[in-house]
């Protein structure tokens, strides 16, 4: 059974997202929303499964791209510019950001969003992944052949608490796998490889403790929010060898593993090769075409560029915001997974 992942990349996201509402306990807003069929819902599903619809985004200093960060695409620049403009209009509401963060505590297996700080942590992580890429980079145009029979599920978890895709106003580059109390939280190498990075971004910052493996064929994998790692840089691991114990370090609400796959600088949605819910690989052998990965990335960036955001000010109501963007209140609530008409100053709402 040999398939080309390029087919999967375009067909899979819809069915994956469609399945999300049943199991992603933290994807609260999606539960009552019907999944529409067709292209439009494909573009909107990821944002609606975002773990933080309540918008705890702090927008200060978001335009800063720290040293070593990956270059922004045009679409990302536009989004940042737009967010900066929103920020300039809304300086007086910044003091509520902390209260917003508290409001989503208790969600299970989720990462929180906190604008500038998260972006900085994202950028550091991406730079670490990029450094790992170069260690094993080959030709960027060559396909990656993966023998999945020699792979291992990185975690025993069978619950995706956050899918790969658009989350609020940026990309979520991995799959979040919820880790419940009492479950085996051992995290193992998905493929044979070498440890190229262990890093601690902080107990409450970014991705907490993470480990990056280089698999020697242009593929790198990342395992984040660990409570501890049992490996050191330079260690050689077989698929299934223990990396560490999953946890809740970094900006994480509820223990979960954040797992990323990247091939020569292009991200792979791990759900296209692993069937996490059933604890198995999707194909015995698979070919990952970088052209398809790039096309998938372009799709996401195009979708992101369509989104518009508004930061709620004191005295705003849904009706006023809906009118401003020429959409219905129902649509505004649907875009943001709101169950009631309650909004808070400082909350960022997606408006298109
Ligand atoms: Zn994650």
Give the radius of gyration: 19 Å
Count the DSSP helices.
8
Q: What would the principal axes of the Cα set say about the shape?
A: globular
Provide the succession of SSEs.
Answer: EHHHHEHEEEEEEEEEEEEEEEEEHEHHE
Question: By helix and strand content, what is the structural category?
Answer: alpha+beta
Which range does the strand content fall in? 15-25%
Point out poorly predicted stretches: 5-70, 86-107
Number of strands: 21
Instruction: Please give the alpha-carbon distance between the first and last residues.
Output: 41 Å
Mean pLDDT: 75
Report on this structure.
The chain is an alpha+beta fold and 352 residues long. Helices cover 30% and strands 24% of the residues. The strands form six sheets. Strands 4, 7, 8, 9, 10, 11, 12, 13, 15 and 16 form a ten-stranded antiparallel sheet that branches. Strand 10 and strand 11 form a beta hairpin. The structure holds zinc ion. Zinc ion (ZN) binds next to loops.
